[in-house]
Amino acid sequence: MISTWRLYLLRGLYLLISLFLTTQIWPTLFHHRPWPLMHGVGVALMAAMAPLMILGIRDPLKMLPIMLFEFFWKTIWITAIALPAWRAHSVDPNMMQSIKEIGFGVIVCPIVIPWDYVWESYIKGKSGSPTASPIKA
User: Where are the domains of the chain?
Assistant: First the structure.
């Protein structure tokens, strides 16, 4: 069972991420110069996450896989990209800003994600589907 306060905390994180994506990423889709291929792919991917995060505000448990994706891509980026750059002393100001922004998600997501629910629903698969309503007041 998931407590109501934890659902509101999860909704708050969906809201925070969706606000960032819609105010910072979506405008760049309409006002940009040509990007290198992978930069354009990254922007498009993050833009696609915005409506999914908005859906997460309404149905936080149904959209939990997108929050898990958010946590995992950020963790992978920090460990595979940022940490080696930091060790090589090659972090420039732009990368440092990304480290701060992405690192915030690496810290906050695991605090907010209901890991017991993830374990029961996605790993063990015993307590019903994610569409069930395991809300506890």
Answer: 2-136
For residue 74, what are the CA distances in angstroms to 5, 29, 64, 81?
25, 21, 15, 10
Looking at residue 80, the DSSP 8-state letter turns out to be I
pLDDT (tens digit, 9 = 90+) per residue, 17-42?
Answer: 999 999 999 999 888 778 899 988 99
Distance of alpha carbon 68 from alpha carbon 57, whole angstroms: 15
For the record, the structure tokens of 123 come out as 């790993």
Residue 17 identity (one-letter amino acid): I
Full-prediction pTM beyond 0.90?
A: no
Residue 135's φ and ψ, nearest 5 degrees, are -90, 135
Q: Let me know: does 46 contact 25? Beta carbons within 8 Å.
A: yes
Could you tell me the two tokens for 49? 């996450």
Q: What is the residue-wise DSSP string for 11-73? A: HHHHHHHHHHIIIIIHHHHHS-----HHHHHHHHHHHHHHHHHHHHHH-TTTTHHHHHHHHHH
